[in-house]
Design a protein that fits this description.
The protein is of the alpha/beta class. It has helices at residues 12-27, 52-70, 82-94, 107-118, 153-157, 165-177, 195-198, 203-211, 232-239, 256-262, 268-281, 300-313, 330-334, 341-364; strands at residues 3-8, 31-34, 42-47, 76-81, 100-101, 135-139, 141-142, 161-162, 182-186, 218-224, 243-249, 286-293, 317-322, 370-378, 382-386, 397-401, 411-420, 423-428. The longest helix has 24 residues, at 341-364. The radius of gyration is 22 Å and the shape is globular. Bound molecules: iron/sulfur cluster.
């Protein structure tokens, strides 16, 4: 029997593609595993090509497995995903150990090829969930039409393509049947969902319909685009108890000049009005955003404006990156990446220090409150859980004292006793 190991690099969207490949391979009779140290004679690497660091990690992983093939530790090596989509010719020329390179949207082809070669063909579009069995990512669209000046994603993934609502509903019903209770909805741009397929934005309708499927305990929304945001989705969030009061929306910057140069199609005033309206419609809303330092032309004044914005908005969750020029983007072709790396990094550190203080203050406000948590895993002294405001992998966790036995995947009410910047300590009530 052949064992195929799939190694996933990059984001949760890649993880969903890996899960589909795994399911198709196991349906075809192959032993398909996700990562881990166990033996596998065939390896598929699902690469990321988003930014410099991610590209480097993908190339290093390919080289590591190429060496394993040279040493006879594995027999076949395949590469798929964003990096392979973008640099297929160059990679093919340089790394001869790889049996075949596949693109970003070729996950059905790779699964079909391996099924034909080693198993029996499978036509199933099902997936094997690799996250803890109670939560899953739900990819509702591929691609992006926005072409922000710093971002290579539209060059890799192509035009925006929504999945039909009925197909997404079927997938959710299937996953609920397998024990999934929490759905983390993802797309490069949630706001545009439906426009290509139905001629109108359909995110509010989609979320409303998914929330009515029996067994769906939590739905959480990731990666909204601020311009043309479909505000009605906030009403769905306010009215449907299983839609988490949480929105991941990347704002990138607040200076009008920087936003314009980034080609974000929104101003500072519009951004503030958008956030105020979201918070007005959804009491208790937790916003996660992503910001960028060191975009070409960002002056010290622009950066100070960004700091003031973060201080004023007090985002519940925030991540930030230093600008990194990406080949082929509008930014790379039209602007000078002139801000020194150490300046970009210092600005990033100042931003994150500020956020750590804000996060600590907001976390402390939760002390004494009763919250519902889902338990993800067990550690020596605690169960580790999350609230509706905590997305897996990126957000704070809740450490629940082991006063009694809890079930992984179970939902419990806890009382918060202590707060750290990125963790809460709680007891079950
Ligand atoms: S909306 Fe997001 S994925 Fe699309 S170009 Fe902008 S940053 Fe990239």
């Amino acid at each position: 029997m052949h064992t195929v190991k799939v190694v996933t690099l990059g984001c949760s969207k890649n993880l969903v593609d890996s899960e589909r490949v795994l399911k198709m391979l196991s349906n075809a009779g192959l032993d398909a595993v996700h990562e881990g140290d166990g033996y596998a004679n065939i390896v598929i690497i699902n690469t990321c090509g988003f930014i410099g660091d991610a590209k480097e990690e993908s190339v290093n992983t390919i080289l590591e497995y190429a060496e394993a093939k040279n040493n006879g530790k594995i027999e076949e090596l395949y590469v798929m995903g964003c990096l392979s989509e973008r640099y297929r010719d160059e990679l093919q020329k340089e790394i001869h150990e790889v049996d075949r390179f596949y693109g970003k949207f070729d996950w059905t082809t790779i699964a079909d090829d391996l099924s034909r070669k080693h198993g029996h063909p499978s036509l199933c579009y099902d997936r094997t969930i690799t996250t803890p069995s109670h939560h899953a990512y739900l990819k509702i669209a591929e691609g992006c039409n926005r072409f922000c000046a710093f971002c290579a994603i539209p060059l890799i993934t192509g035009r925006y393509k929504s999945r039909p609502i009925e197909e997404i509903e079927d997938e959710v019903r299937m996953l609920v049947g397998r024990g999934v209770k929490e759905f983390n909805v993802i797309a490069q741009d949630l706001s545009g969902y439906g426009q290509d397929l139905y001629g109108v934005q359909k995110l509010p309708e989609l979320v409303d319909r998914l929330s009515r499927i029996e067994g769906v305990k939590w739905i959480r929304l990731h990666y909204a685009y601020p311009a043309q945001f479909p505000m009605e989705v906030m009403d769905v969030m306010a009215n449907r108890p299983n839609v988490c009061a949480y929105l991941d929306i990347a704002l990138q910057h607040i200076s009008d000049k920087v936003l314009l140069n980034m080609r974000r199609h929104i101003t500072a005033d519009e951004t503030r009005a958008l956030l105020a309206e979201m918070r007005r419609r959804v009491p208790g809303l937790h916003i996660r955003t992503t910001l960028m330092t060191g975009f070409p032309g960002e002056t010290e004044e622009d950066f100070e404006e960004l700091l003031r914005f973060v201080e004023e908005q007090r985002f519940e969750r925030m991540g930030a990156f230093a600008y990194c020029e990406e080949e082929g983007t509008y930014g790379a072709e039209n602007y000078d990446d002139s801000i020194p790396e150490d300046v970009k990094q210092k600005r990033l550190d100042r931003l994150m220090d500020l956020q750590e203080r804000i996060s600590m203050e907001l976390q402390q406000q939760k002390i004494g409150h009763r919250l519902e948590v889902v338990i993800d895993r067990e550690e020596e002294e605690f169960y580790v859980g999350r609230t509706q405001w905590d997305s897996p992998e990126v957000d704070p966790e809740v450490l629940v004292k082991k006063d009694r036995t809890l079930m992984i995947g179970g939902f419990y009410e806890v009382e918060v006793k202590e707060a750290l910047p990125f963790e809460l300590i709680a007891v079950v009530v």
